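Appendix B. Raw example, untouched.
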Amino acid sequence: MRPEEISRFLNVKSALTEFVTVVGTQAQEHIKPFHKYVALRLVFEGGFAPDEVSPRPPLTVDNRGKRRRIRFDESVEGNGEQTVLGGLKSKRVDVVVAKRGVGPVVAVSIKGTGNAFRNLTNRMEEAIGDSTNIHIMYPGLVYGFLHLLKANREGKFRKNDVSVDMQGRVVPAIARYHDVLRGLTGRRFVRNDFTRYEAVTLVMVDSSGKRRGEIFGKYPSLDSPLHLSRFFASLYNVYDLRFPYVSASVPSLERIEWDSGSPAFVQFGSLGQFTRIAGYTPRVSHG
């Protein structure tokens, strides 16, 4: 795969642009690019093997002693979601990391809302139910909830579909939803409340104008626990708290460090160039 073909999988703006431009939501075509973005990021930044992640990223790994060299290979890519058994019912989860002999260890549920924001309370009920259901069966699962909202500006959309007013402020329904989600994040220990997620983020995406497809930077604020900058780090931190401490007996639980000279990085010119395009730093070993 050429760099120009795969950069759309790596960068968050490319995935979000499709979220606000693709017409129709029945087949989830508007949000599947973001599934791929999350899956790739869990491999490159999170250090999980590509064959452990669903949907399967277009990546393979060459093992040379202790060196793990990663490269792009579109022939292995998969689009399927994984079914996770819950305590009450099974559920197809958008992105899942599953370890052989252990089961699902990380999962991310991704939702998207483009209009009728007053109905967000229904999403809240679904989110609580999903977390409870999955954590009953897998208390140790590191579960993230990520919700994309279109930043529809007043004057360009119908009143019920507006999420940002003329002053650039989010409407009250969005602010209330944000405050409710704050109470659903931060689950750290396996005995904590099953209704909470280990990480939750709210991402608003400009849906029109020159900034179409870009993250609406005014909300949530950088100091909010729901800011995207905190999401992946929270998943990794809780995972490391729960799983790698037994890596001496189950080595596969330890997160991988990729060789800095891997073809996946070299084909972009350098590791630094890869990082600039992706917008995050891969988990690499320079040894």
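End of appendix B.
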